[in-house]
């Protein structure tokens, strides 16, 4: 079995793992619909998330041709705008780009800084290339390369997305560590032979009793300490 000291490259999921996607979406919705109370904001957040999840699942199942994630975000923003009664196209357009402005978790920036001093670090996300560029600048994310599932015209957990990270890493998959707050994401990486580390985040997808991930951490501090020995 691969030991944690055998890891050569660290790969991070981004949305929900490095940045607080739900809080960022709520903030964008409140900005677009300032009169909405908390209950309505939660309803609109659900509208957004359900549309995104369904659209990506339809692509994965072959019921819809691949579309750029920015297209799905624009569709989600339009659904939210319709439900909220937004009439300003500029407000809807700004909402569609809310994925560029998501906040990092409190331990993200420092954790990435510790890890990038010792390891090649990749971001691997269903977010589009432009969104990853803008998000890294906004949230202060430090990595050596950001990979978008857009590059292989698929969405995680499709195998080709993880293969993209393995190919870029340039080492055997058992020496590549996939880090995520979503068990479904880690299962996809595990099926490709990658090592897996679950990091707890509020609102994430925790492991079930049947999941056998290699490591579990409460946050990036513990992960960085285990990997660097510092």
Could you outline the blueprint of secondary structure elements for this entry?
Blueprint: E1 9-12, H1 21-32, H2 38-60, H3 69-84, H4 89-96, H5 108-116, E2 121-125, H6 129-139, E3 145-148, H7 159-169, E4 176-180, H8 183-191, E5 195-199, E6 215-217, H9 220-228
Parallel strand pairs: 1-2, 1-4, 2-3, 4-5, 5-6
Helix pairs in contact: 1-2, 1-4, 2-3, 3-4, 5-9
Polypeptide structure, described:
The protein has 230 residues and is α/β, with parallel strands linked by helices. 47% of the residues lie in helices and 11% in strands. It has helices at residues 21-32, 38-60, 69-84, 89-96, 108-116, 129-139, 159-169, 183-191, 220-228; strands at 9-12, 121-125, 145-148, 176-180, 195-199, 215-217. Helix 2 runs antiparallel to helix 3. The protein is globular, with a radius of gyration of 18 Å.
Q: What is the strand tally?
A: 6
Averaging pLDDT over every residue, what do you get?
A: 96
Strand content: 5-15%
Could you spell the SSE succession in H and E letters?
A: EHHHHHEHEHEHEEH
Shape: globular
